Amino acid sequence: MFKSSITIMKVSGIPIRLHVSFLLILPFIAYVIASNIAGIAEMASVNVGDLALQPFTLGLLLAMLLFVSVALHELSHSLVARSQGMEIQDITLMLLGGVAQIEDGGMERDEMWMAFAGPLFSLVFGAVLLFLIRPLTMGLGADLALVVYYLGFMNIFLAVFNMIPAFPSDGGRILRSFLARRTSYLEATRIATAIGKGFAVAFALFGFLIGNIILILIAFFIYIGATQEYQANVVKDVFSEFKVSDLMTENVATVEIDSTVAELLERMLHDRHSGYPVVDESGAVVGCVTLGDIRSLPQDVHETARIDEIMSREVISVAPWDDLFSALQKISEADIGRLIVMEDGELVGILTRSDIMKAYRLKAMREERRRIEA
After folding, report:
1. 328 burial class (0-12, 13-18, 19+ CB within 10 angstroms)?
2. What fold, for 244-363?
3. Helix residue ranges, H only, the chain
4. For the packed helices 55-83 and 142-162, what is the interaxial angle rounded to 10 degrees?
5. How many Cβ atoms sit within 10 Å of the Cβ of residue 198?
6. Does the pTM of the predicted model rise above 0.90?
7. What band does 10 get if pLDDT is binned at 50, 70 and 90?
8. Pairwise CA distance, residues 188 & 230, whole Å
9. CB neighbours of 352 closer than 8 A, spacing ≥ 6?
10. Which of 108, 240, 247, 280 has its Cα between 20 and 30 A from that of 257?
11. What span, in angstroms and rounded, lies between the C-alpha atoms of 368 and 241?
């Protein structure tokens, strides 16, 4: 989920959110459209003098409706992904469009149809506006005729532009899906990323030559998006090879819930640990306490304050058989330093960020061993 965004509504249970960058770009997009109203009116076969709304008002309306179209485009992706069993976190409208936050799961198998759903919706929606609704509204006012034409034209443009194989656009994801049938998913991502970066450079150069800042921004986001997507897949390729049990620490040291903070500090100095699972009288895990929790407490009450007064009661856990990539996602989303490993309700280990990072070294060792054995 993107930070600095607010939920404005829900569609089919999926939150639609506005990022702060959307509020910044909206007036600019409205100004660009307003500056080109005469050209848009000519393309729509509308007399500018017949327009009732002022250019900027009309530009703002068209900009908002354009972002609604983008939200529907992303919703199409999300509904197809949901039909394939993936969880949808939200849809966020931001600087240059929208992003559907979809939980990773079976993406290698289902990505093509999910990626194709957005452009298909935009193409059909645009065609309906241009060829069915527009003829019916031609006599109902110049403003309505211009709005229908512009939205129809831009939705078709959105469909076509998104099908360009500039990864991570929809077309780039479809390309990756085709490539993944002939090679590994990571290699398919590497090739699609290289092609996407090539398109980004071309867009930037063309945008610079014609003085189009929007095209330059699009190029920038494609380049950054492709880079981040490839890096994320490299991480997944490394971590998904391991299970939590491969890297967790067993024989976990715990602290009792009725211990004092002073006793905990002494324990930390002795064991050189910065966090512990907290257990009650029966040995059941009831929380977790870290050095960060202690820092929020005045030093003069360390002797009397109990651990249950400062500990976190939210136990975020994983199972030994979970893959390491899932554990990394949990630890990143919760912004914590360790995960408690539970099996059948019992504490069997602990997994820290540093434990997870060891996967890189283990992966390199395994690859070296395979190379020698080959």
Report:
1. buried
2. CBS-domain (3.10.580)
3. 20-35, 37-43, 55-83, 107-128, 134-137, 142-162, 170-179, 185-210, 213-239, 244-247, 261-271, 291-295, 324-334, 353-373
4. 40
5. 15
6. no
7. confident
8. 10
9. 249, 337, 338, 339
10. 247
11. 15
In angstroms, rounded to a whole number, what is the distance separating the alpha carbons of residues 117 and 135?
27
Domain boundaries, the chain: 5-239, 244-363
One-letter amino acid of 306 = R
What CA–CA distance (Å, rounded) separates 163 from 250?
A: 50
Which amino acid is it at 322?
D
Q: What is the DSSP string of 160-176?
A: HHHTS--TTSHHHHHHH
Provide the edge-to-edge strand list for the sheet that holds 275-279.
255-256, 275-279, 285-290
Q: Which helix (H) or strand (E) holds 17?
A: strand 14-19
Q: Is 318 within 8 Å of 326 (Cβ atoms)?
A: yes
pLDDT surpasses 90 at 156? yes
Phi, psi of 306 (to 5 degrees): -100, 160
Average confidence (pLDDT) over 292-319: 84
- Copy the structure tokens of residue 345: 């309700």
In sequence order, the 6+-apart residues with CB closer than 8 A to the CB of 63 are 26, 29, 30, 33
For 112-132, what is each residue's pLDDT tens digit?
888 888 899 999 999 999 999
Find, among 51, 53, 69, 59, the residue nearest to 30 by Cα: 59
6 has which bridge partners? 18
- Residues 268-293: tens digit of each pLDDT: 888 888 888 888 888 888 888 888 88
Spell out the alpha helix ranges (H) of 129-168.
134-137, 142-162
- Any idea which residues carry the catalytic annotation? 74
Most confident stretch, 37-41, 198-202, 275-279, 302-306: 198-202
CB atoms < 10 A from the CB of 28, how many? 13
**Is beta strand 338-343 parallel, antiparallel or unpaired with respect to 97-102?**
unpaired
Cα angle 241, 242, 245; round to 5: 160
